[in-house]
Amino acid sequence: MKRTRLAAKKNVLRETVSAAGETNVFNRETQSTSADNVLPSSKSSESSTEPSRLRTRLKLENLTVEKTTISTDTSVNEKKSTKYLQDKKKLRGVVDLEMMKNELKQLEDPPATPIEIELSSTRLSYDFFDVPCETLAQNMLGKILVRQLDNGTILKGRIVETESYLGVVDKASHTYQHRITPRNAPMYMPPGTIYVYLTYGMYHCFNVSSQESGAYVTIRALEPTVGLEYMELLRNICVIEGRKEKKMINNIKSLESHELCNGPSEICTALDIDDETFRDANIVTCHGLWIENNSSVEKLNIVATPQIENEPSKFKKPSKQLLRFYILGNSCISQRNVLYEKDACAT
């Protein structure tokens, strides 16, 4: 009985062990199967993560490239900005002579046409006017006064009479005792400055400054040489409505050549010279008005007399200063003085 029970227990134990073994084997197979099933999934996950890692790496590389580019551009921009600031500082602190020369060339006003070049080739320079007043008045005699109108018309006349005003020491001068007004300011400007003033509200007088402060020369008479018909036309035009309009006079005068410019106001009318057009202009550089050398060489007999205002009369004593000059025998002068003609000197 005992043996039978022991045998039965052994059989049960064997069955239990065998069952446990099969279970273990099944578990192993299941684990291996699950492992096999898991591995492909892990491989697929690894394979799926590889592209994402690649993309991430590419993105990182792109970012690196972009950063490098940005840093490079920034450095370039910084260099440019630094250079700009340096140039800007340089422009503030250093004078560019070449740039200044180019700008000055643009400011120059050279003759625009070959005709103007030819016309201005003989014009008198600054040195001619940079002399004492009496010397300038005498040197002007025989020279040619040229007027170029806005329409291109050229008018010319030979200077035959001048009058000098010595400035601050001359009682007849507008600048006597250093008088300074907006009107006479050009007389204190460099030699050759044009001074045109209005008398009696309707007549102009044309003057040019000389070397001394406040001194000037009045051109009193011309001998017309070019544009006589046009001068006669201008002499028959009057100004109306505050000098802004011009019209022909009712009684047109037929003038002889010696009557066209035989006085200061007649010169300004015949050559259309007014204070608004030539205020503060310099006759050395002015386009519309200048004095040129006379090509014909001739000896001049110059008469020296007192100024018109200071000529002797029964009311005043004769002046010792001979400040008016004219060419002896010329029919275009404003007023002769026979008393002084006998002392005319040849030049």
From TrEMBL:
Catalytic activities: Hydrolysis of alkylated DNA, releasing 3-methyladenine, 3-methylguanine, 7-methylguanine and 7-methyladenine
Compositional bias ranges of the Low complexity kind: 39-51
Annotated organism of origin: Cephus cinctus (Wheat stem sawfly)
GO molecular function, one term: DNA binding
Enzyme Commission (EC) number: 3.2.2.21
Transmembrane segments: none
Region (Disordered): 29-54
Protein name (record): DNA-3-methyladenine glycosylase
Entry's family note: Belongs to the DNA glycosylase MPG family.
